[in-house]
């Protein structure tokens, strides 16, 4: 970044913040002075990261929220607990994600890839939006993937019950991230809250593929140690997320897709207004909220 961000007195919440891209993002935001709350499933690892955050952010604080975002109740509890503790939120980074080799369902009976990668950030953002608006200028950044370009939103089978294929399910969820963000940016216009997506690139070291097949995990492990031109380290991948989240040069930038550290062009389908609006309405039904709850 040409100018180092000054995030002192700002509050950030990073999901999936105990490892990989999320951890690196949380630590960098702390280095810029932000107080950072992280969300993860592993309490021991989370406490360690929280201590690292506190060692970096001067007068700021660090918090750990332990929970599984596969559960709608857990997402609601997270939002409620955060709001009970804090009167501001300047930055929400929806980073938690998963890749499932085999089809599985959450405790709510929803296909896990769609639920965790799309519905969880959709619901969490809705629940925290009033706090973000009250703290404006504020930002919402959702981690997506270049694989969104291969995705398609199959409204007839969003949960992939007929024919589950891991890459198709993942690509659909990442396209959903971009569509959600574009619609969110439109609805938040004039509030001072911006919404963007960030593609960290192919980072084989991340833990999001813990549910992948044994062959897939072995392949990714090999990629992580070979000097391949299309792979990135965790630090390199997180840089795009961090720039979207904190760079002063992107103040006020909304509805954009970031890749390789800058604004880029997302897929043609991600710009389909009809699909974007329909996905918003369907997603609201999945999580039990009004599709008009963010009409400011």
Low-confidence stretches: 215-229
Sheet-strand content, in percent, reads 5-15%
The CATH topology assignment is Rossmann fold
Largest sheet: 8 strands, mixed
Structure in words:
With 296 residues, the protein is α/β, with parallel strands linked by helices. It has one domain (11-287): NAD(P)-binding Rossmann-like Domain (Rossmann fold). It is 42% helix and 13% strand. The chain has eight helices and eight strands; from the N terminus they run βαβαβαβαβαβααββα. It has helices spanning 20-31, 43-54, 72-85, 112-134, 166-187, 214-225, 234-246, 273-287, and strands spanning 11-15, 35-40, 62-66, 91-94, 138-143, 193-199, 257-259, 262-264. Strands 3-2-1-4-5-6-7-8 form an eight-stranded mixed β-sheet, sandwiched between helices. The longest helix is centred in the middle third of the chain and has 23 residues, at 112-134. The model is unreliable at 215-229 (pLDDT under 50).
């Amino acid at each position: 970044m040409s100018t180092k961000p000054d995030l002192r007195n700002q509050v950030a919440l990073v999901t999936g913040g105990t490892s990989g891209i999320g951890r690196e993002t949380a630590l960098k935001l702390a280095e810029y002075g932000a107080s950072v709350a992280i969300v993860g499933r592993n309490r021991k690892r989370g406490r360690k990261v929280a201590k690292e955050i506190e060692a970096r952010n001067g007068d700021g604080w660090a918090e750990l929220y332990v929970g599984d975002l596969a559960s709608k109740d857990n997402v609601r509890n997270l939002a409620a607990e955060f709001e009970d503790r804090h009167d501001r939120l300047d930055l929400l980074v929806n980073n938690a994600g998963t890749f499932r080799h085999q089809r599985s369902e959450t405790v709510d009976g929803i296909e896990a890839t769609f639920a965790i990668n799309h519905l969880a950030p959709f619901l969490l953002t809705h629940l925290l939006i009033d706090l973000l608006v009250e703290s404006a200028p504020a930002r919402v950044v959702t981690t997506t993937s270049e694989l969104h370009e291969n995705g398609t939103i199959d409204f007839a089978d969003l949960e992939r019950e007929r024919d589950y294929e891991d890459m198709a399910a993942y690509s659909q969820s990442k396209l959903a991230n971009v569509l959600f963000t574009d619609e969110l940016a439109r609805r938040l216009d004039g509030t001072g809250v911006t919404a963007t997506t960030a593609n960290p690139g192919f980072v084989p070291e991340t833990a999001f593929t813990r549910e992948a097949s044994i062959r897939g995990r072995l392949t990714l492990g090999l990629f992580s140690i070979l000097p391949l031109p299309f792979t990135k380290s965790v630090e390199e991948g997180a840089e795009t997320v961090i720039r979207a989240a904190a760079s002063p040069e992107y103040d006020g930038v909304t509805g954009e897709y970031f890749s390789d550290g800058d604004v880029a062009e997302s897929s043609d389908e991600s710009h389909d207004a009809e699909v974007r609006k329909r996905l918003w309405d369907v997603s609201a039904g999945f999580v039990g909220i009004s599709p008009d709850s963010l009409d400011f």
